[in-house]
Amino acid sequence: MTSILPPRAPGTLRFVSYNVHKAVGTDRRADPARILRVIAALAADVVILQEADRRLGSRPTALPRGLIAEITGLVPIAAGQSGVSLGWHGNAILTRTDMHLTGLERLDLPGLEPRGALIADLAAPEGALRVCGLHLGLLRPSRRSQLSALTAALNRHAPPPTVIGGDFNEWSTEVGLGRLARGFTLLTPGKSFHARRPIAHLDRFAHDAGVSLLEAGVAEGGQARVASDHLPIWMDVRLATT
């Protein structure tokens, strides 16, 4: 599938973060294949997903595993909350097939509603890296305590180059994420919600000094405006080890 984003320089990595809304689009239709076609058109190396699983019961995946590989060429890391889940509290990470999982931490995050985060250590041809996927709460006090828990977990080990991506649920671009900004560079690529008429910068990245940002943005082409209520965000980076 042809990429809807600019080509990348050799030796760089493309990250995507995407709240897929359980594969339910703005037309109220559940269409996993449509979500996966949007992902495929972004030509990413790592995709960080939110709301990849349904919320109730055993939280079955909204994106069938067989379709993921068939349409995108990517594979999910083994992080399922149950035998039928793709992710942890709906957070999932897809990678190229030549990236290998070397460590995984599943975090339960504090707050009034169940939330979690994934921290995955990966070995890739470009170098070792750490990827964190999260979906923060709706209330700012909860988000602040969740970021404190996340940074405490990340600080327990000397990290390789680290990328954090997800739905931060923070409408302000000036306050609310200071706990993360102490150790990471925050990146707000653009307005990603609501997909049909974007007005809010809910989806963001953060990275440490081991990652050099080259380019970033919000993907609006193809079927992105109808596949989910969020638009995917992306960034191209170079690791300090390359």
Describe it.
The structure is a single chain. This protein has a six-stranded mixed sheet, covered by helices on one side. A six-stranded mixed sheet has the order 5-6-7-8-10-9, with helices on one face. It contains five helices and twelve strands. It has helices at 32-40, 65-72, 140-154, 178-181, 224-227; strands at 13-19, 46-50, 75-76, 92-95, 100-109, 115-124, 127-135, 162-167, 185-187, 203-207, 211-218, 233-239. It starts with 12 loop residues before the first strand and ends with a strand. It is an alpha+beta fold and 242 residues long. The mean pLDDT is 94.
Q: Main beta sheet, described? A: 6 strands, mixed
Mean pLDDT across every amino acid position: 94
List the uncertain runs: none
Q: Structural class of the secondary structure composition?
A: alpha+beta
The amount of beta strand, in percent, is 25-35%
The geometry reads as globular
Helix content, binned percent: 10-25%
How many individual β-strands? 12
Strand order of the largest sheet: 3-4-2-1-12-11
Work out the radius of gyration. 16 Å
